[in-house]
From TrEMBL:
GO terms for molecular function: DNA binding. Residues 171-378 form the Tyr recombinase domain. One of its GO terms (biological process) is DNA integration. This is Site-specific integrase. It comes from Streptococcus parasanguinis.
Amino acid sequence: MAVIKQDDGLWLVDISDGKSSLTGKRIRHRKSNFLTKKEAEEYEAYYRIHKLNQIQNTKKLTISSLYVMLKEEDELRGNKRGTIDTQNSYYTQYVSRFFENADMSSVTIQDVKKYRDWLIEHPSVKGGTLTATHVNQQMIFVHKLFDIAISKGFRQDNPCDAIRKLPEKHKEMSYYTPEQFKKFESYFEESEYPFKLLYRVLMFTGIRMGEALALTWRDVFLDEGYIKIRKSAYYRNGKTHIGSVKTTQSNREIYIHKAFVDELKTWKSVQNQRLSKLTDSTDDLQIFQFSGEPMTAPNVSNFRAAFKKRLPEDFKLIRNHDFRHSHVAFLINQGLRRGEGKDYIFFTLMKRLGHSSINTTINIYSHLFPSQQKEVANAFDDF
């Protein structure tokens, strides 16, 4: 057996590479002290594929071998680090456990359906059970694994092709009107201005949270009055990572109104006075930074938890992503009031939001929220 448990509880990889043509002795490769069996199996798969060139000569296609090939493909394609990290969590927490002893070259549709049923019934690592959306995302990952098996000649078919997505329960879209947003801002304390500024950026630009947390002053062109979106931040394993934006179309410039430009200029001056001694260039500071470290996603989550506790019971705190929806709802309403055509409004929104297709914008925002119907009706007062 190539993967063996050591007496001390750690794991050993012992791989045979045939016999030496010179001495006739068996050639072995050993590596010890892996913390888990899973780590040892991944190393074995990597060594067989990359050092021994045993892709086609294995008797069994293990899940660890298949995952090594997928990771190599992702690196070649330059896939986003965030995507790769998410796939790794799917693999580590779920896929590798279920398919630990499977021969992936002969897994059937029924086997994959059993995996999906297992996901539905299996407790989530965060508590509770996985949502239909999460299960569907896991199945997309498994589909990719079988696509790799096909491309490497291990399979002729992808058993995921015949499996339909689970119906997803979409969260109701919420938003703040300008009046509600001003009410929301009134609950901030003076010392919480950096968080207040964060939500102003979300409301006034419609950018994603990850895009906002990646902003430095090098991305903010105050004289020209726009913000350049080129990066996105995500938090994983106790550290913030800066990667590329969601799609190519997400690279964009977003113009902001003059009053907000002036506010940013004032804040930049205040921030410079506080933090200039901590950096060689204040242009490299995150625009929300108020200490030696940039604001992170956990900082925002912790702030929201404390902030929510002091809100009145009759005031709803919307999700972070709903500020993006609030931005869109306001622009749609303003466009209707100005008599702009629907096609023009959606085209403008597509560019501003960084969607890869206008169909995405239409699918998300073609309906007007029920609570907005009166506002739309009132727009005809100026007819």
